Amino acid sequence: MPNNTPIIQSLLDTDLYKFTMLQVVLHQFPAAHGEYEFRCRNHPDTPLTQLRQQLEAQLDMLCELRFSQDELDYLRGLRFIKSDYVDYLELFHLQRRFISVSEEGEQLAIRINGPMVQAMFFEIFVLAIVNELYFRPLDSKAVREEGRRRLEAKLAELERFQREEAAGQRFPLLIADFGTRRRFSRDWQAHVVERLNHALPQVFRGTSNVHLARKLGITPIGTMAHEFFQAFQALGVRLRDFQKAALESWVQEYRGDLGIALTDVVGMDAFLADFDLYFAKLFDGLRHDSGDPYIWGERAIAHYRKLRIDPATKMLTFSDGLSVDSALALQRHFSPHIQVSFGIGTHFTNDMGLEPLQIVLKLVSCNGQPVAKLSDSPGKTMCSDETFLAYLRQVFKVPAPRQDPPATP
């Protein structure tokens, strides 16, 4: 692809939860201000600072995009998207002044600072652009052939499961593509999703990528991300009550739609303490994104049973670094007790025989106040303020794990 060709060619080329969260922000706290920071958790062979000039040019092109009328009509056809929100999106475009790129030593620094109705929409686009720019020089016929070989092996394993084991499962195997943010390239993700959709119609339930869902006529998948909960740490509610406030806000916006709740913003213990009978009945299920998935799943089932809710009426969605093998193992373990589904990202869209980038772009402050995620996995905690991090741990009685590195300054 020529360097002057935009990597992002549609504002639908992002994850559904960006649209669903943005609708809540627009309706319920439109004046909120957010700051986001970029991090790379591994050490790529080529410094990401070498991408700066190309990234700046791609961001310029990104900020020229608008929604087409056909795209707006598609969004208007999703039952949980409200008409006034689509009217807003008709006027929407990303503002270049809210995102900056610089170099800090050998690190690429990307910062987004602006109203959340703008700032939160940059994330997936930026991560997809950085990935594609990084892997573009490594792209070759041999790399593509290896990617295809690996993809076909995964499809064969899933087909074997359907042929030999599906009949013995209480609940069906359901897999979705969650791979936009760390994809090898835009066209490679399209190839992967098309193959999954064609080869596994009974297993493949959709994609988080709204553009591909529209193009292929399949279901867009997604609800909320960590930033949604984190924002409520700074939106005027008592800190101890921020999770309940976020869940209630979601319920009021969607009235029963999009009912999978994320659990690991301050850890599973703190989440279950807030996820009482009211929320457990209103939400369809829970999403796992850090920590041991087996321990997490067993605790979720036990919580439902404690509340006298039949776990078989609920769903657990797993989305933390899954492979086909790990998804099938979780399916075998949990399907006798509860419905399960799987969002697989990098393992589908960037398994080419090259080391993927471990990049994130996270909310670090809202309305001038620090916010944080206390992950159930060591190394995923991200906060720019150690004092607030310590206070958050104290409020929710979350000990600082010995293996957790210091919060990134």
From TrEMBL:
The modification Phosphohistidine is found at residue 226. InterPro entries: N/Namide_PRibTrfase, NAPRTase_N, Nic_PRibTrfase, Nic_PRibTrfase-Fam, Nicotinate_pribotase-like_C. Pfam families: NAPRTase (PF04095), NAPRTase_N (PF17767). Residues 12-131 form the Nicotinate phosphoribosyltransferase N-terminal domain. It is an enzyme of class 6 (ligase). Residues 175-399 form the Nicotinate/nicotinamide phosphoribosyltransferase domain. Transiently phosphorylated on a His residue during the reaction cycle. Phosphorylation strongly increases the affinity for substrates and increases the rate of nicotinate D-ribonucleotide production. Dephosphorylation regenerates the low-affinity form of the enzyme, leading to product release. It catalyses: 5-phospho-alpha-D-ribose 1-diphosphate + nicotinate + ATP + H2O = nicotinate beta-D-ribonucleotide + ADP + phosphate + diphosphate. GO terms for molecular function: glycosyltransferase activity; nicotinate phosphoribosyltransferase activity. Pathway: Cofactor biosynthesis; NAD(+) biosynthesis; nicotinate D-ribonucleotide from nicotinate: step 1/1. Catalyzes the synthesis of beta-nicotinate D-ribonucleotide from nicotinate and 5-phospho-D-ribose 1-phosphate at the expense of ATP. HAMAP family: NAPRTase. This is Nicotinate phosphoribosyltransferase. It comes from Pseudogulbenkiania ferrooxidans EGD-HP2. The lineage of its organism: Bacteria, Pseudomonadati, Pseudomonadota, Betaproteobacteria, Neisseriales.
